[in-house]
Design a protein that fits this description.
mainly alpha, 15 helices, 3 strands, 3% strand
Amino acid sequence: MDQFMKGTCSDMCPRAEIDLRIRERMVHFFETDPDAGPPGVPDRYRMVKEFTRSAAGMRQPKPSEIRTPRTLLETVHYLLTFVLPDSRRPYCERYEFIFDRMRAVRQEMVIQNLPPSEALPILEPIVRFLCYSAYRLCEAPIREFDPKICGQHLQECLKKVLRCYEEMDTALLADNNRYEMERLYLSFNIGSREATQWAIDRYRTVNPALRLHVAVQLDCLRGNYYAAMKRVAQFAPLEAAVASLQLPAFRRKLLQQFSVAYQSRVQTVPLEWLETVLRYDGRECSLLTDDCRHYNLQVVPLPAMQEVSDGNGEPANRCHDWAVKFEKSQFDAQRSVIPPRKVLSVDRALDRYVNISDVLLNR
């Protein structure tokens, strides 16, 4: 530990960076004083250290430019308490600012090689924030949110948290937090053999706190995606939000299986039944229709409804009047998986939280 630097900065942003960014007019909207007369007036107490990439030739930072572990924790709490709920800007802008500042926090944790007892209180809220944001912004355009980058950082944080738990004295652990993080890891890695093997090796016998999540993993490995989706509906809201990002992949696999199991040139499968099996959660029937057509599956009216449509040959949001004709040769396995969408039941569960900041900070 002696070879690692120890930070001494007790401010969210070192004074040298504050002076530089004010001088160069590089102050972010969330670092300005909302109560000042002219808009955009920098507020030194709201400024948070930016993330900067390490590169060859850059000087080593001084201890006075590295924040103490206590200050890093206070910075994370500030970001989630004051910036996250700030509705003056859309959520994608809040996410971008918080993501960058949290990345700088994680960078300084590495520079100081913080022990698990100091790293975990900082990393756990970051994991929850990335999980929540990955779901909330799943329908955002790529110019506003990159799910791949968010997923990469979430995976890194989850694995770091799990390693911290393994290194930490069991007597000092808060089991509730540990189980929550382990469930989020399994929820984010649904269908992963590595995650499943980790859970089995970690506990040998399935821990009651993880039993439901391990069952989902095993369902996926067996190809029983219907059972997996049904169990995911029983997850806690944040876990269900992360797991729901895999729903489009599950639906694609089921539609491909149905293209073999229900193949027929004459018989069809009711769209209403598919809506239930694929757990479209009461969304508009047109979504299911579009998804079927995305994979080149033919949607046809039921015999009694041959002459009923919206005038354009569309289902007009009445799933009970339409059906899908499955043919193995017609399913387009080359089409990409449909991007994730928000799930109505998950939205309702998350809306029950009065203050999402308290949830992410586990207060």
